[in-house]
Amino acid sequence: MLKFEPLFTITPALLSEVERVAALRERILAAAVQVPWIPALQKDTRIRNAHSSTAIEGNPLTLEQVRAIEEGREIPATAQRPRREVANYFAGLRFVEKNAQLRAIAHREVFKLHRIMAGAVMDQGEAGKYRTIRVRVGSYVAPPPERVQPMMSALLDWWNKEAARLSPILSAAIVHHQFEMIHPFADGNGRTGRMLSLWELYRRGFDDHHIFSIDEFYWEDRPRYYGALEKVRLESGNLTSWLEYSAEGLRGTLERVWSRVQKLTARAGREKLVLRPKQEQLLHLLREKKALTPRELWDGIGVSKQGALDLLRPLMKAGLVRRIGTRKSGRYVLR
User: Fold this and answer.
1) Is 183 a catalytic residue?
2) Residue range 323-333: average pLDDT?
3) Portions of the chain given CATH number 1.10.10.10
4) DSSP string covering 160-186, please?
C-alpha cells in the first residue's frame, strides 16, 4: 500500500510561529470563558470564510453580499452561479461543524463534502467523484487520474493515524497542501482543500468556538499563498516553507480575532455572561435554523416552556437573542 510521509524540518522560525499561535489561542480561549460576543464572532467568521475561500477561486461577490446570502436576504443583479458557490460553501461549513468530532475521515466523507461544495458549479467532471481526466493548474500538472485513489487513501490513512502526533497547526497545513497536490477532483479542489484544513482544526479542538478565519489571510495574500504552495514542488516536496507560511497566516488570523474580541468585549461593557450548556445548545440551534418559534426552541433543546424562558431572558438582556414578529407568530433569532 502507498504510504504518505510528509517531509519537513522544525526550524527556529517555524517553532517561533507555532509558539506565538499557541499563546494567542490561549489568550482568546481565556477571554471566551465570558462569552456574550461569541455568536457575533462566529457569524462574522462564517461570512469571512465563505467570502474569502470563494473569492480566491474568482467569485465576484463582496463581503456584504455574502453576508446577505447568509442572512437570507435577496441580492439583486447578481448571477446565479456566484450565489450558488457561496450557498454551497455555507452548506459545506455546516457539514464540517456537524462532523467536527468525527474520529476517522474516509473517502465517503470527502466525496460528500465535495458534492455539497461543488454541486451545480463545476466546469468539468462530476461533484463527489474523483477525476478521470488529467488536470493542470498553472504550470503544475497534477498526478494522473489512476493515481488519485491510492494517493488519497495514503493521505487519509496518515490523517487518521499519524496526524495527531503533530500540532494541529502543522497537521492542518499538511492536509491542505497534500490535497491540493493530489488535486483529486476535476474542479473545486481549492475550496475543498481549505475546508479539510479547517476540519482538522475543528477535529483537534484547536478552534472549538469556530471563530478563526485563515482563508481571509490567504485571500488577501494570494500571490504569496500560491507561491508558497508552488515552492514545495520546487523544493522536492519539502513542506518546511509551506508550514512556516501557514503558521504565519494562522498567527495573523488569531491576531485579528484577538482585536475583534477586544472590541466586542469593550462594546459589551462591564456586564458579562457565562453561558450554561443549555444556553450554548440554544444559541447553536438558532445559528443553524436562523429563526425558531418558542415551541421549536424548547423542543429542540429538550426543556419545558418555562425552562426555555429562563434560559432566554439573560440572553435577550445581553443582546444575543431577540424576538421578532407578532405575539402569535413570533420567532426568536440571533441579533
Assistant:
1) yes
2) 83
3) 277-334
4) HHTGGGS-HHHHHHHHHHHHHHH--SS
